[in-house]
Specification:
By secondary structure, the protein is of the alpha+beta class. It has helices at 14-21, 43-51, 60-70, 90-97, and strands spanning 2-5, 8-11, 33-36, 39-42, 73-75. The protein has one domain (2-80).
């Protein structure tokens, strides 16, 4: 598959990416990541290895799109996940357990 990363064209294949990442230890995941084989790598680490470019030269989005098109599973940044709804206060929980109507939320 032909793709452009940091304004340079690359012909990437799934097998080529698997071979490039063989024997590479994953770094700590702090943002977006991609599963290659049985390991989960930071997208920037994968991009650096397969393109041989500095990480500052490309965005994680460019590499994520390329990896997704090749059929790898990509994972979003966990910090960007939607925040869970606030839990009920102890008074609201007790009221609901006792069968009463919960007091209005301020």
């Amino acid at each position: 598959m032909r793709c452009v990363i940091a304004r340079y064209p690359f012909d990437l294949t799934k097998g080529g990416v698997l071979d490039s990442m063989k024997g590479i230890t994953p770094e700590t995941i702090t943002g977006e990541s991609v599963t290659i084989g049985r390991r989960r790598y930071p997208v920037k680490q994968v991009g650096e290895i397969i393109t041989r470019q500095d990480r500052r030269d490309f965005s994680s989005g460019e590499v994520t799109r390329a990896m997704a098109r090749l059929g790898f599973t990509c994972h979003p940044d966990p910090e960007l996940a939607p925040a869970p709804e606030p839990a009920a206060t102890p008074v609201q929980t007790a009221s609901a357990l006792l069968g009463g109507t919960p007091p209005p939320v301020a």
